[in-house]
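Bench notes, afternoon.
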Amino acid sequence: MDMTARTILAFRDLSVRYGRTAVVKNVSFDLGRGEVAAIVGESGSGKSQALLAALRLLPPQAVTTGKVQFEGADLLTLPEEPLDAIRGRRIAIVFQEPMSALDPLFSVGSQISAVLRHKAGFPHRAAAARAEDLLALVGLDAPRRRLRAFPHELSGGQRQRIAIAMAIACGPDVLVADEPTTALDVTIAARILDLLRDLKESLGMAMILVSHDLSLVRRYADKIHVMHEGSIVESGRTAALVEAPQHPYTRRLLESVPPARHKLAAPTSPEVLSARDLVVRYRLRGGWFQARHEIKAVDCISLAVREGHTLGVVGESGSGKSTLARAILKLVPARGSIWFAGCDITRLDRAAMRPLRRSMQLVFQDLFSSLSPRLRVGEIVTEGLLVHEPTLSRAARERRAAIALEEVSLDPTLCHRFPHELSGGQRQRVAIARAMILKPRLVVLDEPTSSLDRSVQIEILALLERLQRAHALAYICISHDLSVIRAVADEILVMQAGRVVECGPASDILTHPREAYTRALITAAFPVEGR
């Protein structure tokens, strides 16, 4: 294999098959020392499979061919012992979902120390001290206290930093970051990538960034390799590839930004829901020698949404967006007043609220937990009918399910599938169909496109707009991504730490933000546009 002195990792004709299905097809590229290469493509394009194959981390049924050469050694044929000396020490990986990559039974300090002891031969005390240094290096506050924390006690951004600390613990020559910002707030995603860039420069690592978001990684990569259906369809220096993409798929990725909403709803439409001075408080128990304390997850918020309108609620994780939505739907106790369809629902109990529930629907953020894995799609879509129209026959429910699936552009034959047999975009459409089958007046969309590829996001947002126009729906759309909010919202409400930072017409907020926090969200969402 031809390798220059500057090349540290070389892929040659790497292919991966599962039975007769090829998921990676003759992938070839070089990674230079100290270089950042991005592998970009939509879900299912083979990005992660190629890199897991290089480190021999695929399941036994995967058949891998080709060569992956690291400093003269072919990783695909290297005996297990020397390969194990390279993995985790010379080549490290930051996995896509840190919550599943971190062991929930052990503190983060013990997990980092274990890497140092087993891979670098550190004694216990030295490993603990080095773990604290690593947490400081990746920008975690109070690193000594964080050593004792468990993964579930940390935010998504903090868990990602822990995963990075574990990966760089042994000072690797190559760092593979597999979708390191998936489902993170846009501002936190930018910080994570800034952190990786700074670590790469300070430690002299080469890095491979794996992502579905070309607009995000273009700011950090020296070279970009675009993958589609298992093959690299275009490669080049970042500036040249972005300025003059040759392949239609690359152009499609560059254009995959949700368009701004142009046709706004009539401002005289009747008001569907309004809330005044909503407050949600949580009382937290203190530990030893600590008093109980109280946090305001929602702090005196007022809002209104009209028929055919979309109110966009935007803010980082922990800002109180989802709590506000649950308070509006009377799913958590709250102080203040809530009016729906001209009725004061503030003091209605569960029984009195039940008839109104069909008109106030919620599309949940986490599709994996909100769609029962034991139910078929048809049963999931008709769950609400069993509650609100119990006299309907099974045949009638099945007809309604077929109509609902067709309305969200799904084949009615999917009624017999289980959720795990569907793509992410299909699962999102099923969740929307479950809400729409009850013909609601208000739909709360909690992060309706998080973790989806940009092209799929655009399809889902176009579907939501079509349904809104067809049924004069009122939407409350919650997101951490202002590019999504820009595509759907008539009005925007910006939240931080439970409070409203600013609110107003979408065009005013996006073009003339008053607050620094809003400007930071806009810069993170639209870096290329320079807003």
